């Protein structure tokens, strides 16, 4: 696999990861918005029901109702803030993971480049050995011809040892 293919795969993986995180965030946000709408409707329904039942006593319990309503709003704000905090924490975790993956990918790229350099050096050595081997073979061929040309003086015996 060459560098371009590896880069393309890693880029695709990164884009897919970002898309998945964005999708998950959007789903969570929609769910939180729906829960907030439902909660708001529940508060309104409860408030209307209590108002209808306590219409004659509104003057006496006005401050108590305001305090209860403020308390519920405070609780809703706390729950909503907690949900937002969780969402932000999840996003930060995803960003940290992506950063760690980037660091790992950089390390892998460096190792691949190092391996490429080693392969080039090894290829150069193999080429050099091929040249030397061809030179030795050529010398051996010339020596054998010379030996065969001096048939009476030198004799090449091939033994079965």
Helix-strand blueprint:
Blueprint: H1 3-53, H2 58-149
Helix pairs in contact: 1-2
- Outline the low-pLDDT stretches: none
Total count of strands: 0
Shape: rod-shaped
β-sheet strand percentage? under 5%
Radius of gyration: 41 Å
The major β-sheet equals:
none
- Whole-number average pLDDT? 85
Q: What structural class do the secondary elements suggest?
A: mainly alpha
Number of domains: 1
Q: Give the N-to-C terminal Cα separation.
A: 48 Å
Compact summary:
It contains two helices and no strands. It is mostly helical. It is rod-shaped, with a radius of gyration of 41 Å.
Describe this structure in words.
The protein is an all-alpha fold and 161 residues long. It has one domain. It is 89% helix and 0% strand. The chain has two helices and no strands. It has helices at 3-53, 58-149. Helix 1 (3-53) packs antiparallel against helix 2 (58-149). The protein is rod-shaped. The model has no long low-confidence stretch (mean pLDDT 85).
Pick out its properties.
161 residues; mainly alpha; 2 helices; rod-shaped
């Amino acid at each position: 696999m060459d560098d371009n293919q590896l880069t393309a795969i890693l880029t695709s993986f990164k884009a897919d990861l970002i898309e998945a995180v964005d999708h998950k965030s959007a789903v969570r946000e929609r769910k939180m918005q729906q829960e907030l709408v439902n909660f708001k409707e529940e508060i309104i329904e409860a408030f209307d029901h209590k108002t209808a039942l306590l219409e004659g006593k509104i003057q006496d319990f006005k401050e108590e109702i305001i305090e209860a309503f403020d308390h519920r709003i405070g609780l809703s704000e706390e729950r909503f803030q907690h949900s937002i905090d969780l969402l932000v924490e999840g996003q930060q975790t995803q960003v940290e993971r992506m950063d760690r993956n980037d660091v790992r990918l950089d390390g892998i790229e460096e190792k691949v480049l190092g391996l490429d350099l080693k392969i080039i050096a090894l290829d150069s050595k193999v080429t050099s050995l091929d040249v030397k081997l061809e030179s030795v073979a050529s010398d051996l061929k010339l020596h054998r011809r010379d030996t065969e040309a001096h048939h009476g003086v030198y004799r090449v015996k091939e033994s079965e040892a």
